[in-house]
């Protein structure tokens, strides 16, 4: 996992492939979780031991004043661990992977004040709460049983992954503390609202596979470039603001947008270049692509296809004709032949 995900030059086609891979991954995790639940009573307490530490440690680096050395990377995946208390003593660790275990408590990580990177996917966690870790840049808690977003306040955290959990509402994400967060992954939760994501530094927001019916409370995301809302229950495109001046790509595939008139609500997004509306009722309309370009002249791609120059020329003519008709309707001095008295 990279701590510098730059999605400004986002390729939607590639994203669709990645989403499909993620869907397969979700199914695999669900199957694994079911198996774990079936055999939960058979789990034995399995604490992290010194022999596991020796096997999992790597990356020897200087520490402190540079006169001492310590291993700073630990990988203990798939060890059926239920306890990582031993980590309290390994204060120099910077990279920790404890994914695919049976952990319910990550509090020993509070002692790792040099931690830069954490992956704790596929455990039994109900919370992602930790003490403030001053250098933590990447944290992944995917496919756990987390129910809220409280207690996440790391000042250098850039990427936060909470996909595949049981979160219904985003709360506790303080923009004054999460001053570096640029990528937030909340796909595959139970979100019913986009309220609570007031993080002005955010660039990439993934909200696919939730229970959203509309977009709200995202007006202050002035740096947001990528917004994924695939496979929700969205019917209206209200909630997009001209303040979202950096937004370039919106994925609304698999929602419930019925009317093409909803596209007028995206006019005020000055940098919107790519829009995905496949598998919405409105995408079945015969003039679907033309109407989209009429409403959003700066749009470069709809779904997987770029607009051609002839498409743009036709949309410009339609736009001009509509403008003239509107001007005529609003001109109080305009008289039609029907208004003239007969001689």
From TrEMBL:
Presence of keyword Cytoplasm: yes
Superkingdom as given in the UniProt entry: Eukaryota
Chief localization: cytoplasm
One Pfam family recorded for the sequence: LRR_9
Disordered: annotated segments: 1-38, 305-343
Keywords: Cell projection, Cilium, Coiled coil, Cytoplasm, Cytoskeleton, Flagellum, Leucine-rich repeat, Repeat
GO biological process, one term: flagellated sperm motility
Biased composition, class Basic and acidic residues, residue ranges: 313-337
GO cellular component, one term: cytoplasm
Subunit note: Component of the axonemal radial spoke complex. Interacts with RSPH3. Interacts with RSPH9.
Function summary: Essential for sperm motility and male fertility. Plays an important role in the proper assembly of the third radial spoke (RS3) head and the bridge structure between RS2 and RS3 in the sperm flagella.
Protein name as catalogued: Leucine-rich repeat-containing protein 23
